[in-house]
Amino acid sequence: MPWSRFDQSHAAPEGGGRIITFKDAIREAIDQAMIHDPRVFAIGLDADDKFGVFGSMLNLAHPERVIGAPISENAVTGIALGAALNGLRPICIHLRVDFLLVAMDQVVNYIAKWRYMTRGRIKVPIVVRAVIGRGWGCGAQHSQSLGGLFAHIPGLKVVMPSNPYDVKGLFLAAVKDDWPVIFLEHRWLYKNTGSVPEDMYVLPLGKGRIARAGNKLTVVATSLAVIDTLNAVSGANLDVEVIDPRCLKPLDEELILTSVRKTGRLLVVDYDFPACGFAAEVCAVVAEKAAHHLKSPVQRMTFPESPMPASGILEKAYYPNPDSIAARIRAMLDGVC
Amino acid sequence: MMTGNTLTRELGWRLLRKLREIRQFEERIIPVYPTDVMVTPVHLHIGQEAVPVGVCDHLRPHDLVFIGHRTHGVALAKGMSMGSLMAELYGRTTGCAQGFGGSMHVCDPANGLPGSSALVGGSIALGVGAALAARLGKRDQLVVSCFGDGAADAGVFWESLNFAALKSVPVLFLCEDNGLSNVMRKEDHLHADPGVVAGHFMQVWRADGTDVLSVREAAGEAFAHIRATGRPALLWCATKRWMKHQGVEADDLACNPVDREKDCPIRKLEQALLSAGLATQAEIEQLGGEIESEIDAAIMFAEQSPFPDPGMLATEV
Ligand SMILES: Cc1ncc(C[n+]2csc(CCOP(=O)(O)OP(=O)(O)O)c2C)c(N)n1
Ligand SMILES: [Mg+2]
Fold it and tell me: Do A311 and B92 touch (CB under 8 A)?
């Protein structure tokens, strides 16, 4: 299983090519990983049910390596870790990231620390997939993102892909990696389409991309927030650079700093809680390493400092969207262009 | 509090009213749900009404019930008003959680409902804690942790069971066993019957969860035991889910055949009342009509209530 064969250039294809959905790109990545490497298996509540984790696990070549589970997230996550410690490469699946919280003991106390505590003599090649959901009155316990919470923990890599090409390459990279990876997929991206090569390829964890080039302001965003920001910017034709770091950790600081040195302005759009979060981290990096390039204070656009409400009218007010992002960018650029 | 099950008119009528309130309330959700006036995932109790009604018939307003995601039946059985629940489903300020909670997060402190959880399992422990508080405070208060068969998969269920037994916490563990965890059959998520294992930790009662008199009788005995011994008990009720796990469509799983005649808690009780001469068909129909008007009023109340003000978003946090 020479995974090194798949270390290719990480440039996105220039248009054309095969167009598939985000969901099918994940499905293909899982399928290819399992075909390529017999050590790869999937485990989790509903991993093997007829809905196939929102379609992302359907028609796999190796269904015998997909193990469904009871509502026992903490044990199942520990079981996945145990399998990783004994030579396998588990993909541990959670239909909602909120359910993963039940396994926080295993994730934070065990998975994140095992490699460190064993001085790297034991590797922890585990991918924990969790889906971010929201909307339609899902409420406080079924709508969280929590990327920043996981990124806070030393020993975990955290990936939040925004498009089909990235999700496939990043997922394969996560399976290939000998570190634990928390892989957060936003459910609202599943139907989005894009050009995706059929072959296996990996994108390096920790290398971001410039989603759109621009000069007056840098916006850093991940996952669904990238798509909303691109819509905001292209709709209003704003001269803004959009950076998609792809991973919260390791963070592609250089990409962000280079952009901010050019534009002199930073807005982080982070679909997560604000306090001590990813947006705060990016602002801190810029403040530490590029403060003298800033022409105006950095800004964050996040969820409010509150859990998610249920009622539709409150949900609408709660979440940032392309319009509110465009308005914020315009306000930051007021008098600049 | 009587535990015996002599079917009197008063008892039968009280139980029938509650069963029908739940059934008819939820049946009114079905036609409007596809129009998106309720923007909240619902898990209906239809078919399972006997469990909350049979248990809650023993409870006073200050006795507590903790619930998971399938809330409506327990909430109504425990005394929440239909208007308050309906308005919550409609996302209005007059809802029990001012529209912030939706179907899975209901509360009514005055009626012993301290809240419910959309995450499976965790609320089982809350009932143990509340019962511990009642014991420490020497309060005359019963506490119930209500959960499904799927929740018995979770570590927190077993940890709660052990703690309650070990520390003599006077709580009732109430399992609404509909044989399903979402689309998974019980055989596919539980290796053995947790009631058997639980029997090593505490006394276990079993009831037919499609028969309110069976549930009520077993619950009465379990509560009497809890009161007399100060120890926990488990009541395991095998019941039937008629609807899909979530949403308003009839269930269509091959492993879950439903006989709407045989498995109906309402029909069972009505037959018993009719054959004992304790009610007439005309009276029953009249009761149905009365409840329908109450639901009309609840829906009108919900529809006419204001939506919450987004300015409230960051309050209570
Ligand atoms: C911790 C957690 N894991 C998974 C889920 C998803 N989920 C919601 S309800 C449910 C099935 C629960 O079955 P059971 O406890 O038997 O209750 P029922 O729905 O049958 O009333 C599942 C798996 C969840 N809400 N929380
Ligand atoms: Mg169940």
Answer: yes
What is the count of structural domains for chain B? 1
**Strands laid side by side in the A240-244 sheet:** A209-212, A240-244, A217-221, A266-269, A299-301
- Ligand nearest, relative to CA of residue B68: 1
Whether B252 has a pLDDT exceeding 90, the answer reads: yes
The topology under which CATH files domain A209-333 is Rossmann fold (3.40.50)
Q: What percent of chain B has pLDDT over 90?
A: 98
| A142 given a catalytic annotation | yes
Give the start-to-end residue ranges of the domains of chain A.
8-196, 209-333
Q: Please state which architecture CATH assigns to domain A8-196.
A: 3-Layer(aba) Sandwich (3.40)
Q: What is the ipTM of this complex?
A: 0.89
Q: Is the pLDDT of residue A197 over 80?
A: yes
Q: Are B41 and B182 spatial neighbours (Cβ–Cβ below 8 Å)? A: no
Mean pLDDT of B91-106: 97
Helix/strand/coil for A247: strand
Cβ distance of B155 and A70 shorter than 8 Å: no
CATH of the domain at B61: 3.40.50.970
| Single pTM value for the model | 0.94
Choose, out of B71, B100, B105, B253, the residue to mutate when testing the contact with A (most A CBs < 10 Å).
B100
A141:B119 CB<8 A:
yes
Averaged pLDDT for residues A314-324: 97
The rounded Å distance from CA A50 to ligand 2 centre is 18
Q: How far is CA A266 from CA A95, A194, A262, A328, B242, in A?
A: 33, 28, 11, 12, 54
Any CB–CB contact under 8 A between A334 and chain B?
A: no
Structure tokens at A334: 């007021």
